[in-house]
Amino acid sequence: MNKEWSELNKSFQELIIKKETFDEGKQKLLELRKKLFETIMNVKNGFNPKGYSLIIFPNSKGYDSKTMAYSIYHITRIEDIVCNTIINNLEQVFDKNDYQKRLNINIKTTGNELNKDEIISFSESINIIELFNYFEEVYLESNDYISNLKYEDIKKKIPQEKKNYLYASNYVSHNESSIWLIDYWCSKNILGLLKMPFSRHWIMHIEAFLRIKNEIIKIEKKKISNRIAVCGFSCNHCFLGEWCSGCRSEYNCCSYATLFEDHICPNVKCAKEKDLEGCYDCPLLEKCEIGFYNKENNDGNAAKVSARFIHKYGKDSFVKVLNEMHKTYEFYKIQEMIKDSYNGIKILEDYLKNI
Ligand code: SF4
Ligand code: SF4
Ligand code: SF4
Q1: In ligand 3, which atom is closest to the CA atom of 270?
Q2: d(CA 265, ligand 1 centre) in Å
Q3: pLDDT tier at 175 (50, 70, 90 boundaries)?
Q4: b/e map of 126-152 (b: 16 or more CB within 10 Å)?
Q5: Of the candidates 185, 53, 180, 171, which has an alpha carbon nearest to the alpha carbon of residue 119?
């Protein structure tokens, strides 16, 4: 388990049970949830929607045997049912805001009952943008609930009539893979529910979500032998290298590319139209201000210096220089060092001379 998440989880559980540290415990829980929420939202803008419906570990017995879309849906759906129906007697976000229609799905349940093929078709049809909206709305509502919780509340038990209500509802499938959830939730007090649907359940599925995503990127990276980005960056040295399979792949997670329609970076588009491998092969490079090379963009200056260096000395020399520089400096520091068009090239050339 991610060390930071595990420690926050442990600490919230220890603090929340004592009256004098109850508020601190709630803050730790909110902090944990914020970190988990941001982990998912960071993926939102930079990931090809195709990846959300892939089953990458079909033989796994764990949570990573599902899809990324299923992982987000499942933790959100369960929290919505537990927080609103079971604990607060309120209408679920799912019903109140018409999410079945908005998500384009034909179930109202938690999804536990779905087999692999059903998970794939469910994930292919779900509207990913609405899925993130649903996730965010439920997250915020639950946070309000947690923030207003009193110490006296945590020992409250779930009334038995909730069980009957849930059996009669269509929120939990009667399939054996799901029906146990009703007994499980209704046997807990509020503290027990905080420890699972609101925290640990997220950790388990978000870790699986990340394993699936990272494996997709790993597989995609293997398909692309040229690890120099079109603008001149080196993907193998980029701070996003773990997350992004490069702008020559289907899973380009470059934050600049995500600003454009279909996540296609103008430099990638332009080089492709000119039938060039990269901007480093382009005769217009020196004066180019397209896309990432626009004058206001400091990162673009560093990329352009890199592309000019590659044009003169080749990709292998560029990689050798970066390998050397990375022994001392991190990605951002190097971008800062080389962003000046004259001195930048000189720094790279000096390194090359001394290798
Ligand atoms: S700015 Fe464009 S060319 Fe450069 S790494 Fe990002 S997607 Fe690739
Ligand atoms: S962000 Fe750009 S340079 Fe970094 S790994 Fe992705 S494509 Fe490569
Ligand atoms: S014109 Fe600019 S963006 Fe297009 S390929 Fe040449 S250097 Fe790259």
Answers
A1: 4
A2: 6
A3: very high
A4: bbbebbbbbbbbbbebbbebbeebebe
A5: 53
Using CA positions, which residue lies closest to atom 8 of ligand 2? 235
Token pair 């019903």 is at which residue? Answer: 95
Per-residue pLDDT of 90-100, as tens digits, reads: 999 999 999 99
Ligand closest to Cα of 265 equals 1
- Is 45 a residue whose pLDDT tops 80? no
The tokens of 101 are what?
């229609």
Q: Which of 311, 300, 312 is nearest to 338 (CA)?
A: 300
C-alpha to C-alpha distances, 140 to 144, 147, 311, nearest whole angstrom: 6, 10, 50
The rounded Cα 293 to chain-centroid distance in angstroms is 28
Q: How far is the CA of 229 from the centre of ligand 2 (A)?
A: 6
One-letter amino acid for residue 213 of the chain = K
**Domains of the chain listed by start with CATH number:** 3-219 (1.20.120), 225-354 (no CATH)
Atom of ligand 1 nearest to the CA of 254: 6
Tokens encoding 63: 């949570």
